[in-house]
Amino acid sequence: MKFALITDLHANREALEEVLAHARAHGAAQFAFLGDFVGYGADPGWVVDQVRALVDQGAIAVMGNHDAATVRGAQPTMRPTARLAVEWTRTQLDAAQLEFLARLPLSQQRGTALFVHANAHAPAEWEYILGRAEAVRSLQATQARHVFCGHMHLPMLFHLSGTGKAGDFTPVPGVPIPVPVHRQWLAIPGACGQPRDGNPAAAYALFDDEAMTLCFQRVPYDHEAAAHKIIAAGLPPEFGERLHDGR
C-alpha cells in the first residue's frame, strides 16, 4: 500500500488541496499526517476538517507542536509572531475542531513504520532532527524500521545499519528510493504548507510498504493566493512572504 506522508500543513488550504490531488493521482491508498495542521496559515478550520475526515477513513494523524499550543496554550519559547498565530487560530476553530487536535496522539505505529511529528526519542519535547546525530538518537529509541517525522520543514533521509553505521543524503524529488528493512530509516518529507528549503513548492513523500520504497515529491500550488489570504486575515506579513521563496 502507498501512504502519502504529509506534514507541517500549517493551515495552508491551497497547498494541501494540490498535495492530496497529486498523491491520489500517484496511487496513494492511505494518508499519514505528521502534525502541525495549524499555525501560520489562514485556513486552520478547513485543514483540520480535511484531516479529520481522512482520519475517519483510516488515515494516521499525530500531534505537532503548533497543534499542542493551540489547545494547551503557547509555549514560552515560541516567538511572539508564532504566539500571535496560536491565539488567532484558537478564535478560528470550533469546539469539535479543537477537541480533534487535543485528542491526537504523539505517535502511531503501523507495521514497520513509526509516525511522529518531531522525533522518536522524546516526542513531547519537540526537539528537532538537525542532522545525523539526532536521527541516530531517534532510530536507537525504537524498533521500528521506518521512522517518519516532520517539524524540520526540510526534506531529509537518514539510515542506520545493524552494525551502527549511519548515513544521510538529500533526496531527489520523483526518484523512488529503496528502504529495505535490514536497515533503519528516518525520513522527513518536508513541509506541505510552509517549505523552508528555498523551493516554494509543497513537499510530501510516498511510502510503499510492500515494495519498500520511498519517493519524495514537490507539488507547485498557488502560493500567491495563500500568502494574500494570510495578510488579509491580519496575520504577520512574514508568514505570507515565506511562501513566495520557500524560506
Automatic annotation (TrEMBL):
Residues 1-208 form the Calcineurin-like phosphoesterase domain. One of its GO terms (molecular function) is phosphatase activity. Gene3D superfamilies: 3.60.21.10. One of its GO terms (cellular component) is cytoplasm. Belongs to the metallophosphoesterase superfamily. YfcE family. This is Metallophosphoesterase. The lineage of its organism: Bacteria, Pseudomonadati, Pseudomonadota, Betaproteobacteria, Burkholderiales.
